[in-house]
Amino acid sequence: MIHITKEELLKLAQAANLSLSEEEIPGILRRLEAVLSYAAYLQEFQDTGASLPQISNIVREDVAKETPIEPLLALAPEIEEQYYIVPAILKQ
Amino acid sequence: MNEFAFASIKTLRQALDAGTISIDELLSYYLKRFETYDKKLGSALEVFDKESILQASSLKGPLAGIPGIVKDNICQKDRITSCSSKILQNYRAPYNATVVSRLDEAGALRVGRANCDEFAMGSSTETSAYQITRNPWDLDRVPGGSSGGSIVAVAAGLVPWSLGSETGGSVRQPAALCGIVGLKPTYGLLSRYGLVAYASSLDQIGISTRYVYDNALLLSLVVGKDPMDATSVSVENSDYISNLTGKLKEGFTLGIIDNALTTDGFDPEVLKKLEDAIKHFEGLGAKIKRISLPIMDHAAAVYFMVSRAEAASNLARFDGVRYGYRCDNPTSLTDMYTRSRTEGFGAEVKARILVGMYVLSAGHSNEYYKAAKRVQALMREAYYEAFKEVDLLFAPVSPTHAFKLGEFKDNSLALDLQDYFTASNNLTGTPALAVPCGFTQAGLPIGFQLIGPEFSEAAIYQAAYAYEQSTEWHTKHPDLP
To answer: Is position A67 within any domain?
Structure first.
């Protein structure tokens, strides 16, 4: 059985920009431990000589295309002219 | 009029062409069915108004006037595309998915958007932020998922076709649990442009219909290279119809994945119907070859690792900046990211992102993610070798029939394992079709799947059609309350 500490979980959550309430932590820990324990045996395949899947890049010409930006800007929660507004990044 | 409820697209086409019914009348008829039945079923998140439905279509082509519904994670221009998530509750797609555009050009009518598990993450359609969807054969049971709404609308005769999406079995499993036909195409056969990404290397748009012919017809109208999706491929032959003779191919060999049928925890009634279907194929002249593909027993474990890893990466884009939900009064940029995501995503999505973060994190990626990718490569090889000996493979879709709503609420792993028999095709890029093969004594549908090598959809349809036309399962429909 894989064991994950609360601290490990909170670190993952922080990296994923999620916050977890005290009440939901035990349930999420149980879920993570269940799925990771189920899949933990896969590490036996690490040293079997099996290779990673072959992948190749697909390339195309880099051609600039004019696309109206208004419909995209209209989806934003907050804009000013053609800029997205977010909370200040630097302190005043 | 009621003869149209469960009519095939072929029959509807003839009726429309003969003038027995007009496009307007047929559309009104189906919209009325949504009004009458969908309050209980919950298949649609939204049904559009008649005028705008007609406006979006070319109304010309093989599907002229044939209504269908689209899963809520596939973009329909100017319509909400929420992925059944709060984080996209007000997101209006600024463009059509390529597959949607192709259906519009073929004359099809899109009547609405179908409920699904949030971001297509689930096997029961219970993780939608908006509503549950019920199985039309038993309203206390789930339809399966994640494309539950798309499948139920078709199974209940509210429309003759729908689009869903597949990452680990999300079209085939609900199709089997609701007694209809569901295709997971070869990776790259359909453009993913406009399909909201869950796990990009596995995702494909899938097609569900009540009949094999209809499924083949729809596929032939949406395949092909799309400059907007670099992983899409061009196909030389998009004719999936002329093979549908009702006969199997000369010398047809069907491989049975024997280890799948001897898996622990199989429902005996489901197993019996699968064995009956194998015998039926034998009766149709198929040579049956039982083979063992033990590597496929790892499909669920590999799928959990690969899909969660890609989900964690794909869903990082939802940050409250450019579109989607933004929290009230953020105090800092990080506070805005974190609260928007925390308030916008549901529990299932958060859990999958966190699993993905774990398996990609330093110190764990070798033992989980990379190990899973190695097994994925072995699975590809195993299928490749198997198809040297057999034309197609026969496998279960789900080890169970439709289960009760809420049955797995305290056992998420058991629910996740609904993908056990289906995920191998997403992981290997191979096509597979779920086909109905009977009912339990309590009247719940059961299905099998036919799996083929890449781009063998025509061969799969041929065998499925021969089975369908020589059995009666496709003539059974649920009695709606």
So the answer is: no
Query: B 330-349 residues with CB below 8 A of A?
Result: 330-339, 341-342, 345, 347
Q: Could you give the number of structural domains in chain A?
A: 1
Global confidence as pTM: 0.97
Residue A72 placed within a domain = no
Strands annotated E in B203-320: 204-209, 253-257, 287-291
pLDDT in tens, B175-213: 999 999 999 999 999 999 999 999 999 999 999 999 999
Domain count, chain B: 1
Q: CB B338 to CB A43 under 8 A?
A: no
Phi/psi at B304 (nearest 5 deg)? Answer: -60, -40
B40: annotated active-site residue:
no
On whether any CB of chain A is under 8 Å from the CB of B377, the answer is: yes
Check if B227 contacts A (Cβ < 8 Å): yes
Assess if residue B264 is contained within a domain.
no
Tokens encoding B287: 């040579």
Of B81, B120, B76, nearest to B100 by C-alpha is B76
Q: Is there a catalytic annotation at residue B170?
A: yes
ipTM of the complex: 0.95
Compute the distance between CA of residue B452 and CA of residue B458 in angstroms, rounded to an integer: 10
B214: domain range?
2-245+432-475
